[in-house]
Amino acid sequence: MHENREHGVVNQGVMDQVRDFIVTNFLFGDDSRLPGANDSLLESGLVDSTGVLEIVDFLETDMQVAVADDETLPSNLDSIENLTSFITRKRSATAMG
User: Fold this and answer.
1) Assigned superfamily of 2-96
2) CA separation (Å) from 15 to 26, 69, 70, 97?
3) Domain extents in the chain
4) What is the pTM of this model?
5) 73-92 pLDDT, tens per residue?
6) For residue 66, what are the contacts with CB-CB under 8 A and spacing of at least 6?
7) Whose CA is closest to 83, among 18, 31, 23?
8) How far apart are CA 90 and CA 11, in angstroms?
9) Number of alpha carbons in the 13 Å side-chain half-sphere of residue 34
């Protein structure tokens, strides 16, 4: 049980970092327009194809997560929840590998 709580805290920290990035880079500090964790960043118009490149740069530079070309999919990058899960999976794979 203790491990699950720690994992949840780590996920929340990652999600907070993702939210901060979205607010700073796409909403120019206006967190009142922040989409829900599962809302599509593309469908909402918040992120376009250039924005996806910005997200990949954020993942690789700030979050220290390598993103392969075949991983630039909506299932990994199109919502705050998807980004958080992707970062967590990549970090776990790196830690185990």
Assistant:
1) ACP-like (1.10.1200.10)
2) 16, 23, 23, 23
3) 2-96
4) 0.88
5) 999 999 999 999 999 999 99
6) 60, 90
7) 18
8) 12
9) 18
